[in-house]
Amino acid sequence: SELGLESYWALAHELLSLQGGSSSAYYLALAQTYLLKEELSKCEECLCEAVRIDCMNPNVWAQKGHLCYLKKDFGEAKECYERAMGFMEDAEDRHFVYLRLGSIYLEEKLLKEMVEAEDALSEANALNNTNAEVWAYLSLICLHGGRHTEAEQCYKYVLKVCVCATVGWAGQGSVWPGTGQSMPHYESRNHGMGLGWKGP
Fold it and tell me: SUPFAM superfamilies given for it (predicted)?
């Protein structure tokens, strides 16, 4: 939207003036502006400059991963997301990093990657357990691994989340409306557990 573009432009110029010159944060804000305008080549240039200035900024690596993901360069996106995961405590959009990284691992369908996909999607689910897409991917992983009961349970949560979304329920507090029941978090089998009731 125009409002979104104006906000990013304003932020970029504010960062430029406050920090006395171009910074990693400035180029990141500028890259986000170009991404909204669908000017992908300019977005990439800004992200490369942001990495050059500060190669340890997780938000830059996450944004670069998002750009590569949109361009369907999934190999490069995976590398960027994995770099971002090294700084996950400071990253702003951890949920989307985990979600997209999990989807890439799942698409590759390698045994080792399937394990990592389940771990990544479990992390995404821990951050937001009312996201139908995450539950759907987890259902596919369980199905692929022959865990049909867990696959069915995950699929049921996909349907529940979608139904609640259509009636305008935002999932506040991860409690189902009218029942008082908590929405479960998925815990990876790789940590010795499957689907379980874990508080948000």
Answer: TPR-like
